[in-house]
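User: Can you help me understand a structure? I only have the sequence.
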Amino acid sequence: MLQGLAGTELRAPRQASADQLSQWFGWTDAISLSAALDGNAAAPAGGRLRPAEAEARECLRVRSALAKAIAEDGAWQGGKEAPAAVADFAPYRRRYLAQQQALDAAVGSLRGRLRAVLAGRSPAMARLAAVDVVMEQVLAARERSFLASVPGMLEKHFGRLRTAGAEAPGDAGEGGEAGEGGQSGAWLEVFHGDIRNVLLAELDFRFQPVEGLLEALRMRPPGCHE
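Assistant: Let's start by predicting it. Here is the structure, written out as tokens:
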């Protein structure tokens, strides 16, 4: 999705090769990872033991609520909450950043919760939780940089659509702004759909480590009873 909007090759941090990933580790990161693998790192405090499927249902509930908030956001519905000045991307940027913050807070909370539950299952799972802490620390800066670049890509996409809309006969008014009857043209509807799809793709991207932790929870080590 983002590759199509940016018109260039774009690689998300978690799609990096093993060689690239190894280059992102500094010597302090390597020490922390080694300690986690050896079981010497401080794992998250163990959480209340609940069945894995109960945790999965909670994650699904949060994910569904976030997806619904994105899909129904008035900023991209063309309703009262939509930016009034169609020629200005700034209101969309502010709303997108607010959505990013909501995703970061909700997914981060889930990830911490799942690590705590893992830590209470077994020593092996406690090591896995500790490894996830290190991996999050190593990848956090690159993920933030990657995700921070998305609004800029959307702004360029917005400009291209607006220009094309202004040149299309019978669409938007002069300059690509709202035309007769207050209608902004089909190009803006396309943009609203694109910005929703990009946010939903970001939700999928942010949920990757959560899905990994859930998968680990579903693996029942010997002696572990739910």
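Now, to help you interpret it: The two ends are 40 Å apart (CA to CA). Residues 186-218 form the longest helix (33 residues). Let me know which part you'd like to focus on.
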